Peptidase_A3 domain-containing protein (Cephalotus follicularis), 113 residues
Amino acid sequence: MNCIQEGLVPTKYFKKTKQKLSTANGENLSVKFKISDVHICNDGICIKQTFILVKDLDIGIILGQPFLEVIKPFKVKNEGITIKIFQRKSLFAFNEKPITKEINLLKILSIFK
């Protein structure tokens, strides 16, 4: 899922949700709200997504599988994810130096268009 840490977005944009979310190791995350109609914009390209608000998220924002489904096909490089939409290339750069294992997983996923 696309996730945003609770506290980063004003409460007037929240909607209640009954959606459940857990970590990869099965721990339940505290989820009460979602935000619909979020626009992720980069180089003049905007992509509309929904985000789940998560308490105690270690990272501010996670772009998950729903985002990746919209931008495919994509290519993953050490700098970030490259897409081509409407004959325009755009790079969604990684904020921090990513872990090599995660980059390799994204590269594998980008092969399966």
About this structure: Residues 72-113 form one domain. The mean pLDDT is 80.
